[in-house]
């Protein structure tokens, strides 16, 4: 099985405008073949118009969330392409939901896989390699890759399931972002966040 790298995912995202997880799944299914992955995304309707994917998201909002007790606060910037969408109620609600979600997830490190600091990724890889040392040699690599994926699911915003599972039916932030992008027909980007906790 071909190893899918962050660069492969980014290349496919740049071409299709589809979400990180959708790109990763398509590449896995296509065994790393980017042309086949593009076809799969187009078939599923997840590939946006190339023109839209290339358009920069320069409009948007900064939303805040302060947790009850005023001990935790989050600021998050979410971008879109037009001022019209930036004022859209669903767009603003999505940004607010992301801020609330990050407040509840203290382990969060980055928005996407590509934003994870190299030192953090290498540290986790070392830990996973040490933990897999007693496993048979032929499965060690898969075990390490699996542990790394599980860790990324925990620390990357777009991979995380929204904490309010009842409201969002267990969907990930990326799935919610992708749905909103399809609905608004704009490139929606969770740009950055800052999380504050008293005493941290």
Strand-residue proportion:
5-15%
How do the strands line up in the largest sheet?
1-2-3
Total domain units: 3
Uncertain parts: 49-54
Question: Strand-and-helix sequence, N→C?
Answer: HHHHEEHHHHHHE
Question: What would CATH call the class of the largest domain?
Answer: Alpha Beta
Name the average pLDDT.
85
CATH topology of the largest domain: Tetrahydropterin Synthase, Chain A
Report how far apart the termini are. 42 Å
Q: Which descriptor suits the 3D outline?
A: globular
What's the Cα radius of gyration?
18 Å
Query: Into which percent range does the helicity of residues fall?
Result: 40-55%
- The DSSP helix count reads 10
CATH superfamily placement of the largest domain: Elongation factor Ts, dimerisation domain
Structural class: alpha+beta
Biggest sheet layout? 3 strands, antiparallel
DSSP strand tally: 3
Strand-helix topology:
Layout (H helix, E strand, L loop, with lengths): L5 H11 L3 H10 L4 H10 L6 H5 L4 E8 L5 E9 L2 H4 L2 H15 L14 H14 L5 H19 L9 H4 L4 H12 L4 E9 L3
Antiparallel strand pairs: 1-2, 2-3
Helix pairs in contact: 1-2, 1-3, 2-3, 6-10, 7-8
Name its key features:
52% helix, 200 residues, globular, 3 strands, 3 domains, 10 helices, Helicase, Ruva Protein, domain 3, alpha+beta, Tetrahydropterin Synthase, Chain A
Describe the protein's architecture and organization.
This protein has helices at residues 6-16, 20-29, 34-43, 50-54, 83-86, 89-103, 118-131, 137-155, 165-168, 173-184, and strands at residues 59-66, 72-80, 189-197. The chain has a three-stranded antiparallel β-sheet with strand order 1-2-3. Residues 49-54 have low confidence and may be disordered. Strand 1 and strand 2 form a beta hairpin. Helix content is 52%, strand content 13%. It folds into three domains: 6-52, Ubiquitin-associated (UBA) domain (Helicase, Ruva Protein, domain 3, Orthogonal Bundle); 57-111 and 156-197, Tetrahydropterin Synthase, Chain A (2-Layer Sandwich), CATH 3.30.479; 117-155. Helix 6 (89-103) packs antiparallel against helix 10 (173-184) and helix 7 (118-131) packs across helix 8. It is globular and about 55 Å long. The protein is of the alpha+beta class. The chain is built from ten helices and three strands; from the N terminus they run ααααββααααααβ.
């Amino acid at each position: 099985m071909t190893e899918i790298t962050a660069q492969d995912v980014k290349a496919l995202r740049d071409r299709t405008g589809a979400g990180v997880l959708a790109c990763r799944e398509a590449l896995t299914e296509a065994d790393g073949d980017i042309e086949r992955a593009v076809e799969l995304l187009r078939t599923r309707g997840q590939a946006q118009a190339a023109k839209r994917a290339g358009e920069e998201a320069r409009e948007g909002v900064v939303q805040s969330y302060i947790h009850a007790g005023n001990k935790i606060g989050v600021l998050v910037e979410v971008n879109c392409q037009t001022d019209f969408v930036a004022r859209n109620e669903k767009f603003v609600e999505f940004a607010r939901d992301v801020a609330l979600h990050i407040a509840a997830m203290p382990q969060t490190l980055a928005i996407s896989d590509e934003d994870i600091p190299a030192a953090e990724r290498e540290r986790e890889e070392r830990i996973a390699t040490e933990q897999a040392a007693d496993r048979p040699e032929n499965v060690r690599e898969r075990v390490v890759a699996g542990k790394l994926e599980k860790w990324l699911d925990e620390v990357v915003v777009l991979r995380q399931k929204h904490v309010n599972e009842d409201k969002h039916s267990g969907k990930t932030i990326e799935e919610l972002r992708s749905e909103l992008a399809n609905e608004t027909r704009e490139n929606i980007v969770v740009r950055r966040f800052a999380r504050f906790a008293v005493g941290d």
